[in-house]
Each structure stands twice: as structure tokens, then as C-alpha cells.
Amino acid sequence: MREVSSEKTTHPVLIFWIVAGWVGFLILPWYGIEDGFFRLDWLLDGYPLDSDYAPAAFLIGQGQKLWLAPLLVPLVAPLLVLTKRKTDPIFAKILITAGAFGFAWLIAQGFGIGIRGWSFGWLQALFGPLEDRQFGMGYGALLLASSYLFLFTQGIAARGAINGDVFVVSAVSGVIVIVSVFVFFPIAKMLLAAFITEDGSYSFVIFAAKFFDDRIWGLSCVFGSGRCGVAWNSLFLAVIVGLLTTILGLVFALVVTRSGFRFKPALRALTVLPIITPPFVIGLAIILLFGLSGSVTGYVADLFGIRPTRWVYGLPGLLIAQLLAFTPIAFLVLIGVVEGVSPSMEEAAQTLRANKWQVFRTVSLPLMRPGLANAFLLGFIESMADFGNPLVLGGNFDVLSTEIFFAIVGAQYDQGRAAVLAIVLLAFTLGAFYAQRSWLGNKSYTTVSGKGDAGVHPQMPRGLSIPVLTTAMIWAGFTIVIYAMILYGSMVELWGVNNTLTFKHYITAFSMRLEDGGIRWSGSAWDSFWTTIKIATVAAPLTAAVGLITAYLLTRQTFAGKNSFEFGTMLSFAIPGTVIGVSYILAFNVPPIELTGTGIILVVSFIFRNMPVGVRAGIASMSQLDKSLDESSLTLGANSWQTFRRVILPLLRPAILAALVYSFVRAMTAISAVIFLVSAEHNMATAYIIGRVENNDYGLAIAYSTTLIFVMLAAVGLLQLMVGKTRIGRRMDHKSGG
Amino acid sequence: MAGTPINSKAASVSFRNVSKKYGKTVLAVDDVSLEIEAGTLVTLLGPSGCGKTTMLRMIAGLEMVTSGQIMIGDRDVTKLPATDRDVSMVFQSYALFPHMSVIENVSYGLKFSGFDKVETHDRARAGLDLVGLGEFGARLPSELSGGQQQRVAVARALVLEPQVLLFDEPLSNLDAKLRRQVREEIREIQQNLGLTVVYVTHDQEEALAVSDQIVVMRNAGIAQIGTPRELYDAPADRFVADFIGEANLIDCTIQKVTGGIAQIDMSGYRHKLEARGMEPGPATVAIRPSRMRLVRGATGAGIKAQIEKATYVGSHMEYVVSGDFGQVFAILDDVDDALVPGEGVMLSFDEKGPVLLPAQ
Question: A738 and B95: CB-CB below 8 Å?
Fold first, then answer.
């Protein structure tokens, strides 16, 4: 007979984490290494005695950083229970106490003591001045913190939480901790920053003064002759973009699913293009077309003999650019919903004597409601968070995201103002997020029942299909023109002035030479290009992993606080990149977690920006897998980790690949958070391109962007090859099946 | 049921040389002609992919015929879309609108049929009462059990007083106990209101239980049409014999035919039965498991055989018997003196029951 695990007195997982804790304390450098996380120079440079590289134990041994000493106690305590049975109450008690105390002390000392000694005045008052100081945590601290966390979770598991499943308890706690550290902590830090006065104390007055600034909430464009506040500008733009992208997205979804239109695949491909395009590239193309020296502007000016104007800079240009950029996102959301409306619903309505238009109005459209709400929310948030287009096209139409950027990097350097603006931005997106959730409520409209849906979607009513097809055609034509412009623009000497064709820009950016038997990457873009590829490659699998584990927990496990857990993990979806950028700068510039200027902060920001997509993809495909699969694996003697690894994971391959490619693409095209976090050493492609645009070097910027588009096309193509076409178990037209 | 404002306008349905092709190659229905009398319940029965659901959807107007003609009553509906046909359908998935309450679901069709508000409401209520769900009007479909959803779907279709009511495997999403109850209710409503009902199923027992006529379909065509009894007792060929109920098919030789009675021979065992127009030569005999006789021993009339398996199922014994003819399945009522595996038996047939079929 199989030994019942709870009666075992050897605990391999426990031993592993205790050893890890000791390694973190005794062997690895305690503080962050300045040269970079992955450099190993420290091994030869005074380790283990040099206090920059020394492990905690050596620091204490040399009489330094004595506040680290109490960390030994919770490391020793778990050794006492190694021989105890899991069911012994003392086992759980000691692990919980040790883990909780260790973790709490680690955090407390990290926040309490910073670069200038005590971080808070009252600590100094209490303990007297401190001669020593400390920097950001490094490998040792990281490992020890994980060790404490997982000792703690094993303690709770031993007490029977979540059926005593160590893997699930640890995974839940792990996700909670990293989301708290990398989402909630920075946001909280940012909220605090809005209240900080110049001398470092907190004041509500200063917050109120910045918050009620006329530059944010002014209404003089309505009631006077001046400009409106940035908050109104952003809100106005976002609402219009949200509405229009939803309508356009629906139009495309209808054309693809409910019309006899012949070029559906081409249309689909066209709508995917903007997703792999860095968002501001559309803005650049608009400038090429409608800018002061744009081709359309020039043509119209010649034709009617009027002087070219800068009309496109501002609201009109932004609106066009964002519509082009974000409609595909709405389309991708809506296509699933439009296809998901059960054909038998619509057929039932037809047999109940409703004509096509009535069926569409009373059945199809209401069933698409959740999708429409989702698409609107996405368009709204994307528009609010968009940074690239307002930067290149905004003109005098200021929006929140660019204002935040200029508050931090501009001459004004006002962190408090940036924080306040970010709070306003966050309030808008969270407000929309909340409104959408409460509007939809708990109504379940999922109509794919999996049973007996043999039918086919009816075609659109005629009165609808004509305007819908026309709109789709116009949009498609415009998109083609835009991309042609981008390709052409990248090969023109100087747009609007000298239209000779040239590869000059590509050569400047991507030239290479064979030299001394090696390749010399002499082009100016290579640095940022390789950094981008590297960071995207590191971030993608991590994003997919965190996302899928979270999805697994949400679909397969029940535990107390699951709803707040889900809300928390989805929240970062509603946090605009600009806000993430600002809050990361504010939170991770000082100990205990010092990350600014490193590549890690970029990777981390990508993980938590894109995680919700991984979670969604995971949930979608995991809910297709029957729970009896897990249960049969569990009854066959596997534990939940083995079940996850051997049963769930292999069945999730398509979701994994989707999450991988999505996060890869997003990491390569993102700009809003990235622009705050790049450094000279870790420059990203998008940030580099924006830099070129600000120097009016459009040729190079567009050439670089074009290259990025092709790189991502290749990545997406590779994915298509690997996964193959996903098929929904329903025939798509009248042609096959029976 | 008297006094409900729901009446029947039952009409006949006829298929005239109807074919349906999907694309260029897939023939779902191949030149079918069929008459369905007004006021009867006709079942389309067959294995999956035989074209039965396509037939149903063509009556509804959800699929258009490739060639041929469909009549409902005296009216040619071949080219009419679903909306304009006086037909309603109960879907396998019920297809209740999740965003409408039960009463709104039932009123849905009435709204488009030119009834005023008061009458729409009265009729919807009457429909719900008819299926015993009068109390549940305000609920959402998601708040009902599977059986209740089923009945709402029936009510929604009934209140329109359609000329033809269609059921697409209506019981397949219900559990076994409910199935029997719901199918009896459907049959009762059909008979009380005198509706024309076309009913698709792949469950032969269900078909036998509810139908006036059964249309057995195979490979896009009709294999046999008849009352449940005709199909069970006199299947036209091996396919129907095997599909309706269980049948043992044994090769035999017709030795002679006299006065419509054939004498057949199987390994020396002789039996007389209706010739059904067949000539001497090789043939197949189909016998229901319950029409078999097994006698212990190796002598007497019958075919020599051996018990392979014996299963006690309470009310009767089930045996697998093997011999020169292959394996057959037999059901015997005698549970007290059961045969045991390995025992030799003589196998013979009841006087009534065996049916002669063409050889394969």
C-alpha cells in the first residue's frame, strides 16, 4: 500500500526551503550588486569579506549590520520540527511563527533602514542616530525572503488550509506576494508621493493644491476661450475612442462572421497588423499623410490653393491614430463574442417568426452586450494610457499620459505633480473598470453550451450589411494606405522635401561590418534592438508562467478570498502603463528594492503589465478542460503540482504559446511604461525611436519601426505554424458537415 | 386542458424528391419523398450523420433544399425562410434566450405574430400553465432546472399554434428518469391538441415509445417507414432489424417456399416462417433475444451450441451463446434453473418472432 503522505516524517520540500534560506544567509551576497544582477564579477572582487558583496552572516561576523542578526532565529527554528509529523500541531505552529516573523522582520528592517540610516524620524528619536546604512536587497535577501514565505505556507498547509495542499497554498501566497510587491506597493508609494512636500513631510494641502490645479480640471474651452484641463481632454478622447473602436470592432466582427464577404482572411490579417505595430507608428504615418509637409496636405493645398495647416495635430489626429491602432483590439474581443452567440439561439428566434433584423436586435445584440462592454473598456483604457501618439501628434491638445511624462522628465521635475496626474489617470481607468463590472453584474451570457449547437450564424440583415461592409472597406483601405506610407516613408531621403528613394535610414540603423573575424554591429539601432529582444525574450516566458499559474488557481482551486485574489490580479490590466512607469520610479529607486536603471525593472514591468492576458488565456482554455481530468490524476496518486505539470500543462499548449507571443509582442511595442524605466545601458527600441522622433529624425524612426513590424510578423507567423489554426467545434458556413 | 386558448392548426408535411447537398460533395439527404399526416407524431430515427437533423431543419426553413419540393398543408414552402413558415422548433440545447425571463421567452414569438399586448400575455401564460410552469414566469432560464428549461422551450414553441412542431433530440440533455416523464408529457400534449409533430432522435426506445410512425434513415435516405410494431416485428432488412431493438442475425438457406411459407435450414435445424416474397436460396434470419429457446443437452430439435457467458440481471437471465453460426445473444425468463458457462445446449426459435431477411 501507498504510504499516506501526512504520516511521513521526512519533508523534502521543507528541507529544500530551509537549505535555501541558509544559503541565502550564509553564502550569497546580501545586498544588490551594482554591476548588474547577472554579472559574476563579485566572486573575484573581495567576496566574501568586502561589505558590498558579503553574505549576511559575514556582515554580522564583522560587526556590521547587526539588525540582520534576528533573522537567524526563524532560520534555526524550523530545524526543530524536521523530525516531527506533519499532523503534529507544533509542526505547523513553529513554521507559521518562524516564517511570519522572519518575513516581517526582513521587510521591517528593509524599510526602516535606508541609504541615510533610519528612514523615519521617529525611529531615530527612539533608538538614537545610526552610523550605518544599507542599500537594496540582493540575491541573499531575495532567497531568504522566499524561504520564509514558503516555510510560512507549509505551516498553513500543515494546519489544513486548502486541503493541506502545499503547492496550492504556496502558489497562492507567492502570487499574492509578487503582485503586492510589484503592483500594490508601487501604487501605494505613488499615492503617498502626491502628498509629499518639498522638505519631505506629508501635507494634504499640497496634494489639494496640485489636484485642483486648473491645468488638470480647467473648463475654459467650454466656458471661455482658453484650453481645457488635461483630465477633460483625456476623458473626452477616451470616451470617443472607446465608443468608436467598439462600433468599428463590431463592424469587422460582423463582416467576418455574418456576411458572404469573400476576402475575410485578408481582412482578418489587416486587423492583426496594428497589434504588432508600435502604437506611435500610426501617429507617424498620419503625420506623413496629413502633417504640414504631408502628401495629402500638399495635394489638397495645391488643388485648392490654400495654405497647409497643422490641423491634424491635436484632437483630430489623435482620434484617427487611436482609432486605427485600437480598433483591432476591440475586434479581437468582439469576434469571440459574436462567434460565441449560439447559432441555435438565432435559429430559435427565426422559427419564432422574428425576421432577420428583429433577430439581430432582440437576440444577437443583447447577447453580445458583455463583449461590447469589454471592448469599450479596452478602447477607453488603451486611449487613456496611450503615450506614443499624443507625444508625436498631440500638438496643443495635452493629455494625462504625456503631462505625467513631462512632469517627471521635463524642466519642472515635479514628482508630486506626476503622482497627482497619475492618480487622476488611474481613477478614470479604475472607475471605468468598476463601472463595467457593476453594469454587467453576474449575468452569465455564455451561450456556447457545447451541446447540440449544429447551426450556422444567419447572415446580417440587408439594411445592416451595406453600411457595415462599406465602413469595413473604408477602414481597410485607409489601413492599407497607412502601411504603404510607413514602408515608403522609411525609404525616402527626407519626407516632403527630397523624395528620392534610399536605404540610407536602414543603413544608419542596422549596418554591420565583418571585422577581425567577427561581426561588428555598427548601426545606431543595434544596441536598443538587442536589448529589446533580450528583455522581451526573458519577460515572455515569465509572464506566461505567472499568468497560467494564476489561471490554474482561479479555475481549479477554491480558497478563501478567491474573488479579491482575482480582482487583484486583473487590476493591473486597468492600470495604464504611464502610471506603472511613474510608480515604479517612485517605488524602486530606493531600498529595500532598488531596481531603477536595471533590465530587471523592465522585465518586471512587462510581467505585471501583460499578466492579465496570460491569466485570461489560461482561464479560457482551462475552463474547457473538465475537472474530472485533475481529479482522476489526483486519485491516481499524483499531487496537485504533478497534476498541473503532467496533465494540465500539456493540454494548455495553445494557451501557453498565445500568452508567450502576446507578451513578446507587447514587450517589443510597449512605450508608455518603458519610457520612464529605460536607462542608458538598457534602452528599448520604442524609447529609442521616440527619441529619434523628438529630434525630427523621422526617416530613421520609421525605418526602425518597419523593421520591428517585420520582426514581430515573423514571431507571429512562427506561432501560427506551431499551434495551427484553432477550431471551434462548430461548422463555420453552410459548406460542410451535416 | 380544456379551456386553454391554445389550439392546433395541424397540417401535413410532404417531401417530394428532396435532396440536400452541402458544398459540392457532401450529400446529406438524397432524393427523399415522405408524407407526414396531419395530427400525427412522426419520428426520424437513425445513426448520427444519416441526415435526420437536416430533414428537420429543412422543414423549419433553417436549411434550404438543393432540389425537390417541401409542402406544409397545401402550401409550397420550398423557398420560404424560417421566419415566414408556420412551424416552430424545440432545440436540442433548448436555445432559451438567457437575457429574457421565462415569460418573455414564451411571449417572444407572439410579439412578432401580430397579437396585442394583452393577448400575447394571456397566451404566454396559458402556454406556461400547459407545461406546469405557471409560477415561474419571472425567473431567468438560468434559474431553472434542465427539465424545466425543456418545458419552457416546448411552451415557447406551442403558443404559436404552429402547423408543424419540430423536436430536435429534445431529451438528450436530460437524465434517464426525466426522459421517460418528459417524453410521455410531449406525447400527451401532442395527442390532446392533435398536433403534427416531427421528432428527431437516435434513441430507438424513445422512438418506439412516442411515435405514430417511425422513419428509419440511413446514409441520407429512408431505410423503412412504419408503425413501431411493424418496424419491430417485420424489419425490412438487416440494418433496420439491428437498429430497432436488438436482433441476432443468422445466415440460413431457404429450402422451399410453399403458399407464402418458407422452410429454412440452419446446420440441420429447420424452421418455418413467412417467406415475405423471398425465393429459395441463401438468406438471413433475424431473431429477437427474447424469442430464443435454449434446452439443456445435446439432443432434440435445434442447433448445437454452447453457453459462453451467463449474466443474472434480476428479472431475467442474459446469455451469450456460441456455435457454428457465430455468437448470439439470448434472454430467458427462467432465473431459477439458470444455465452455466460451458454447458451444451440446443438452440431453437419461438414459433412467432423470427423474420426472414435478404442475405447480406
Answer: no
